[in-house]
UniProtKB/TrEMBL annotation, chain A:
Transmembrane segments: none
Entry-linked NCBIfam families: PDH_E1_alph_y
Lineage: Eukaryota, Viridiplantae, Streptophyta, Embryophyta, Tracheophyta
Organism: Escallonia herrerae
Entry-linked InterPro entries: DH_E1, PDH_E1_Alpha_Subunit, Pyrv_DH_E1_asu_subgrp-y, THDP-binding
Stored SUPFAM superfamilies: Thiamin diphosphate-binding fold (THDP-binding)
Protein name as catalogued: Pyruvate dehydrogenase E1 component subunit alpha
Required cofactor names: thiamine diphosphate
Keyword Oxidoreductase among UniProt keywords: yes
Region (Disordered): 356-380
Reactions the enzyme catalyzes: N(6)-[(R)-lipoyl]-L-lysyl-[protein] + pyruvate + H(+) = N(6)-[(R)-S(8)-acetyldihydrolipoyl]-L-lysyl-[protein] + CO2
BP GO terms, sorted: pyruvate decarboxylation to acetyl-CoA
PANTHER family: PYRUVATE DEHYDROGENASE E1 COMPONENT SUBUNIT ALPHA (PTHR11516:SF60), PYRUVATE DEHYDROGENASE E1 COMPONENT, ALPHA SUBUNIT BACTERIAL AND ORGANELLAR (PTHR11516)
Protein origin, superkingdom: Eukaryota
Pfam families: E1_dh
Automatic annotation (TrEMBL), chain B:
Domain of life: Eukaryota
Protein name stated in the entry: pyruvate dehydrogenase (acetyl-transferring)
One Gene Ontology MF term: metal ion binding
Species the sequence originates in: Escallonia herrerae
Top-rank EC class of the record's enzyme: oxidoreductase
NCBIfam families named among the record's database cross-references: PRK09212.1 (NF006667)
Length: 380, 402
């Protein structure tokens, strides 16, 4: 592992006393980009009909810190949503993503905003990753005007067109054909961009998924199907729903990769690899082995079909934020206190966004009828 | 209140007492609902008896084809073609005009389309723009919607409208609702089209009328073409619309021939078509039933009636402006549709007219629909399933009480 330079001269002249010269906080200094850290993914990749990429990945202190900040923010958002739901400010369905942050962050790190992402209803963090703001998210969850869908979509319908985020879908599996449509459009327009169509282990048994996969493979569409396997389709464990829970192999003639979805570097590497692959060879399936700490949704305690030991075990052994924290500390990129400060900052950001979202009014009654149709010649 | 009039039994002329309860009839004057008359004469809402009017025969005959003043411009020579060719012409013009327009469906490409609507287009535009899909309605409809989210303008062909039931989730939730649930961020400019309706002994599953199932989906528009002229015009309008449009064609109308203008034209998606102006009664219809109505109209004219026939064309939303003006003129409404009686377009139209024009009605709205049965295979039974011209004549006579 290469050493990290800690030269004080190139860093921003913040109010830093001499004591902090030894351990610099995360900064945008150029030397951080030049510093290379090599990490290994927790486990090697497993391939189906494909040679998996290397498990050795290069990163930088800056990237490590960015991962930490982003995941901390996502984690904080989901925990706050839990409280908001319990105080009845969020109603209906609310599916939380805490535990799975590495997938959202790792994927984002491998692609551009011109690449498309589409997912199902566990979409809050992906929305954030695509450039959505905390205010838009909380306002939407509370059904307010400032929400990303003007309060008319709700938890399961976050979208961000300019960020290449196509939602946000409530019906299990229906987003996969849509995702192939996005890929079709990319191929049609001859762009060199790809589409990540995310679905869960529950949706993996949907027929339309295989229909879509067949078409994507037939026409070499740049579609990456990502199975976020958190091992439970609501209350049903994967082995009780699927004869073959090796979701990365289910594509049969379509190659697949099994990825440790709790390891942000593994996710990033896999997504980078997948993007290069599909632009030349047609679709691929990525199975992200991940875990959700919450139940399926806020109405599910999440403990009737799995043990609390299992949940706390994963939290101890595989938590994505903890993994990055350990890496940061072991490479002396930041101190424990600094990381705690970042988490406090995330909490503050989230609290402020919630306060702002609470101020946003409910949509006007006239909004009931807007956006049903596009204003067109003659259409009311 | 409207009575849904169902002709039970043979397609042959019904006796006037058959399933018709004259006690249910009430006549309301336009001025006040309380001035209800219990008589069975045809009373104009201004108090006059209508007998004088009915004696005048309308000499200009009822057209057998859908060629009326609204249809074609008389000045230019135009060219003759069949309805499926008109659809193709409209499609091709739009594909030439906008490179984002593409077609996807089963056998639309190399085979040329099971009803030849897309014949010749794949060699011209390539396999990606005229895409042969596998038999996977749910997912290729979803794919079209996803592509539309990015700005492409796909046209999805259902080989038979009935197959689109497999894609209902995509059509309802994604096609219809995405514009709303995304707060206006995404538009879905798709056209979903295909033949439906009762054909010639195609069997129950291939004789469905999906307009009744789709009509409640918010966010979509529905139109039904019936002539080569409006087929081409509606196809072009549907493609250009930013909203998702479902274009209902009919299996038995593809070979209708008509002379259409050479110059470019588009029909308005939300407009109804005046087929035959008249004074005595408004007959609202669409798609194939238009022809049964016009056939009945010939008989009715010979009997001294003057029906006003409107092809509503726009199934969602209804053109209540044209329909309303007609109701205000004739005060009697007969709806003739191919949907089943329960929950069909006629049922919704009856409600809409009653709600909006109740005061102008001299008689309850009568709606002739198909029977609430799966369409049988046997030819005679199939005939009984749908509304036949003789039933239309009888219904008009009874409505006008002559």
């Amino acid at each position: 592992m290469s050493l990290i330079h800690r030269s004080s001269g190139l860093l921003k002249p913040l109010a830093a006393g001499p004591a902090s010269l030894l351990r610099r906080p995360f900064s945008s200094a150029t030397d951080d980009d030049a510093t290379k850290i090599t990490v290994e993914t927790s486990v090697p990749f497993t391939g189906h009909r494909i040679d998996p990429p290397s498990r050795t990945i290069d990163t930088t202190p800056k990237e490590l810190m960015t991962f930490f900040v982003d995941m901390a923010r996502m984690r904080r958002m989901e925990i706050a949503a839990d409280s908001l739901y319990k105080s009845k400010l969020i109603r209906g369905f609310c599916h939380l993503y805490d535990g799975q942050e590495a997938v959202a962050v790792g994927m984002e790190a491998a692609i551009t905003r011109k690449d498309c992402i589409i997912t199902a209803y566990r979409d809050h963090c992906i929305f954030l990753g695509r450039g959505g703001t905390l205010l838009e998210a909380f306002a939407e969850l509370m059904g307010r005007k400032a929400g990303c869908s003007k309060g008319k979509g709700g938890s399961m319908h976050f979208y961000k067109k300019d960020g290449g985020f196509y939602g946000g879908h409530g019906i299990v599996g229906a987003q996969v054909p849509l995702g192939c449509g996005l890929a079709f459009a990319q191929k049609y327009s001859k762009e060199d961009h790809v589409t990540f169509a995310l679905y869960g282990d529950g949706a993996a048994n949907q027929g339309q998924l295989f229909e879509a996969l067949n078409m994507a493979a037939l026409w070499d569409l740049p579609a990456i199907l990502v199975c976020e396997n958190n091992h439970y389709g609501m209350g049903t464990a994967e082995w009780r729903a699927a004869k073959s829970p090796a979701y990365y192999k289910r594509g049969d003639y379509v190659p697949g990769l099994k990825v440790d979805g709790m390891d942000v570097f593994a996710v990033k590497q896999a997504c980078k690899f997948a993007k290069e692959h599909v632009l030349k060879n047609g679709p691929i399936i990525l199975e992200m082995d991940t875990y959700r700490y919450h139940g399926h949704s806020m109405s599910d305690p999440g403990s009737t079909y799995r043990t609390r030991d299992e949940i706390s075990g994963v939290r101890q052994e595989r938590d994505p934020i903890e993994r990055i924290r350990k890496l940061i500390l072991s490479h002396d990129i930041a101190s424990e206190k600094e990381l705690k400060d970042i988490e406090k900052k995330a909490r503050k950001e989230v609290d402020e966004a919630i306060a702002q979202a609470k101020e946003s009014p409910m949509p006007e009654p006239s909004e009931l009828f807007t956006n049903v149709y596009v204003k067109d010649h003659g259409v009311e | 209140m409207a009575s849904i009039f169902q002709a039970v039994g043979a397609a042959a002329a019904l006796s006037s007492s058959n399933s018709f309860d004259s006690k249910k009839f009430y006549l309301s004057s336009r001025k006040s609902v309380s001035e209800r008359k219990g008589s069975i004469f045809v009373v104009r809402s201004d108090g006059r008896m209508s007998s004088g009017r009915v004696d005048k025969l309308v000499t200009n005959a009822v057209a057998t084809k859908a060629d009326s003043a609204a249809a074609s411009t008389a000045s230019k020579p135009g060219h003759e073609l069949l309805l499926f060719e008109a659809l193709r012409e409209g499609l091709e013009e739009e594909m030439d005009r906008d490179p984002r327009v593409c077609v996807m469906g089963e056998d639309v490409g190399h085979y040329g389309g099971s009803y030849k609507v897309t014949k010749g287009l794949a060699p011209k535009y390539g396999d990606l723009r005229v895409l042969d899909t596998p038999i996977a309605e749910n997912s290729f409809t979803g794919m079209a919607i996803g592509a539309a989210m990015t700005g492409l303008r796909p046209i999805v062909e259902g080989m038979n409208m009935g197959f689109l039931l497999l894609a209902f989730n995509q059509i309802s939730n994604n096609c219809g609702m995405l514009h709303y649930t995304s707060g206006g961020q995404f538009t879905i400019p798709v056209v979903i089209r295909g033949p439906g309706g009762v054909g010639r002994q195609l069997g129950a599953e291939h004789s469905q009328r999906l307009e009744s199932y789709f009509q409640s989906i918010p966010g979509i528009q529905m139109v039904a073409c019936s002539t080569p002229y409006n087929a081409k015009g509606l196809m072009k309008a549907a493609i250009r619309s930013e909203n998702p449009v479902i274009l209902f064609e009919h299996v038995l109308l593809y070979n209708l021939k008509e002379r259409i203008p050479d110059e470019e034209y588009i029909c308005n998606l939300e407009e109804a078509e005046m087929v035959r102006p008249g004074e005595h009664i408004t007959i609202l219809t669409y798609s194939r039933m238009r022809y049964h109505v016009m056939q009945a109209a010939k008989t009715l004219v010979n009997k001294g009636y003057d029906p006003e026939v409107i092809d509503i064309r726009s199934l969602k939303p209804f053109d209540l402006h044209t329909i309303g003006n007609s109701v205000k003129k004739t005060h009697r409404v007969l709806i003739v549709e191919e949907c089943m009686r329960t929950g069909g377009i006629g049922a919704s139209l009856t409600a809409a007219i009653t709600e909006n024009f109740h005061d102008y009605l001299d008689a309850p709205i009568v709606c002739l629909s198909s029977q609430d049965v799966p369409t049988p295979y046997a030819g005679t039974l199939e005939e009984f399933t749908i509304v036949q011209p003789a039933q239309i004549v009888t219904a008009v006579e009874q409505l006008c009480q002559q």
